[in-house]
């Protein structure tokens, strides 16, 4: 589905439903079948460990049972391939869709201003959107404003060994079972619990709301969507609202919004700086909506790196005119770059929270926001802040001074 914005009604009270692309009967029914198959596949994927265990207990994983099942699966795949072909025929016979494909192919061949302007009138699968900014563009790596490093953010480093200890082969063998278990948990259940917004079923359920939010940003706020390519190959979905041409002085400042673990820029915290009159750059975590990849810590840091590079070298904002506004787990990615750029920081820790505070809500020492605080203090004041000073800052301070 794509949405044409070239014939939008001027009145805000008139519904813009008619501007949505209306597929013909063949494409509509074929697309519904493929969407239903996609949902069933996602459910099967997440429930596969339990299904395999059940089939094993019932003895259905024997060769005599698996061979007929593979025949059924192959037949189903052929039927779905036929349905996909029918959808393609339905799209090809639709003049409106052919016009969209013509503009898309022209933009891929030549990313001129006019082609991008015409392409911005459509909302479609973001995987087909051409890359607007590459992390390795020459202009983004000249001078000292370019960011932390040529390879993105050097975030994950091995823990330093204490004096007098050695990481022997025997110690590594002893740690291996725990490392394998933690890897499996982190890459399966853990990542989806920590970032539920990356789960396909949740995105599918929220898609109508996300489309409405995106349309509001484009139609009412003149937002410009862009695809950024990070150093790890992930494509980051962004939305920029430029207020520099308005009479409001806040428009000269850019607010980069970092959403929470189930937040999207379409319906996230971007509304707060927009209402205050600031220029805003929103982006989605890797694996969220139009962004590709998975939201692992290093991927998050790389995504934030290319977003900041885009703001400085393509949008033209100076580092001192950029505000990083982070909510919930977005504070992690926000802290990655407050280390690299000087300026005041306000860190608000939720004290009465069962997740953020890992022991009792009143114990400030167990608040997970302390890890961000310690990292920031150690980077900015390496010769002033010692261990005792850091501990005292955690106990007494709720605001971090510049």
From TrEMBL:
Coiled coil: none
Spans through the membrane: 33-57, 69-89
Span of domain Phosphatidylserine Lipase ABHD16 N-terminal: 18-125
Sample GO molecular function, one term: phospholipase activity
A GO cellular-component term linked to this record: membrane
Gene3D superfamilies xrefs: alpha/beta hydrolase (3.40.50.1820)
One GO biological process term: monoacylglycerol catabolic process
Pfam families (UniProt xref): ABHD16_N
Entry superkingdom: Eukaryota
InterPro entries in alphabetical order: AB_hydrolase_fold (IPR029058), ABHD16_N (IPR054518)
EC number assigned by the record: 3.1.1.23
Swiss-Prot/TrEMBL keywords: Hydrolase, Lipid metabolism, Membrane, Transmembrane, Transmembrane helix
Cell location: Membrane
Reactions catalysed: Hydrolyzes glycerol monoesters of long-chain fatty acids
Protein name: acylglycerol lipase
Organism annotation: Cricetulus griseus
